[in-house]
Amino acid sequence: MFIACEFFLEELAKYIEAHLIETKAHWLRLHFAHVYQENFKNFTLLHENALVSLVGRDDLQMKEIMIWNYVIKWGIAQNPDLPSDYKDWTQENFLSLKTTLQSCLPLIRYFQISGDDIYEYVHLYKKILEKALWKDVKMRLLSPNKPVASKILPPRTILTKKLPTRTNEPFSTVINEIHLAEISSWIDKREVKCFTENNPYEFKLLLRGSRDGLTNVAFWNLCNKKTNVVVVMKVKGTDEILGGYNPIGWEKPNTDYTTKPCNDSFIFSLKNGAIQNSILSRVKDPTKEVIFNYFLYGEYEIFQIHKKSL
């Protein structure tokens, strides 16, 4: 819209403005500060009516002292003959600025500005304020509960951005907490299965087929050189859950694949639905434990496990 206005495409600008208001009103409210801060990058080019309309808004999402500073900067830009250092200004210079800003100054919420900011920023230009107003501003800082004659504008409405409702994604779409406890017991070579409440391992999801893709690229991007990994997958069309534990992980080969012996890896089938018992198969001879087979799977996940700190 700013581009359309800059090229005086009035009809287009009006159309875009109407479209934003009608279809993006909620977004505009939540991002009000950003929209106007972007506009303020060239705010010295704004027409006076636009600036007055902007400063008068109750929902302008900016600190009051920032609004004051912008207004002063705009006013100075409209008076290019003013000395660059305000210390060199004459009474006529302050009067010129006051006249330029006569429609904006009453819209500033002076009583919402902190004492530090009053004396650091507003005090420099006190001569452009009405004497009674400046007296009341100082009095309010010294005696906050004492009534003043000047009109006190209400604070601007600060819009709080509401975050979308967070949905708790299940840790797995293949296995449950009981399965985790069983796998953890196998990793520790326990005869008695772990309880779900005191599982000694944390399972961090590295890859989910339905989320990250069922490709070699996804696998190597997310799992290359990861150690202590557990793979689980559902066999398509059945209740079977197959998987395995690989403590040494995989490393993407540069040429042909290679195998590494490992005594602690194992494969398993988990109890699920009509399948009443889990099956564990450990390595007997690490130099010969390579099995190739094929089946269709519906979903698979890879976790990296870490020992929980006590």
UniProtKB/TrEMBL annotation:
<dbReference type="InterPro" id="IPR006571">
    <property type="entry name" value="TLDc_dom"/>
</dbReference>
<feature type="domain" description="TLDc">
    <location>
        <begin position="173"/>
        <end position="310"/>
    </location>
</feature>
<protein>
    <recommendedName>
        <fullName>TLDc domain-containing protein</fullName>
    </recommendedName>
</protein>
<dbReference type="Pfam" id="PF07534">
    <property type="entry name" value="TLD"/>
</dbReference>
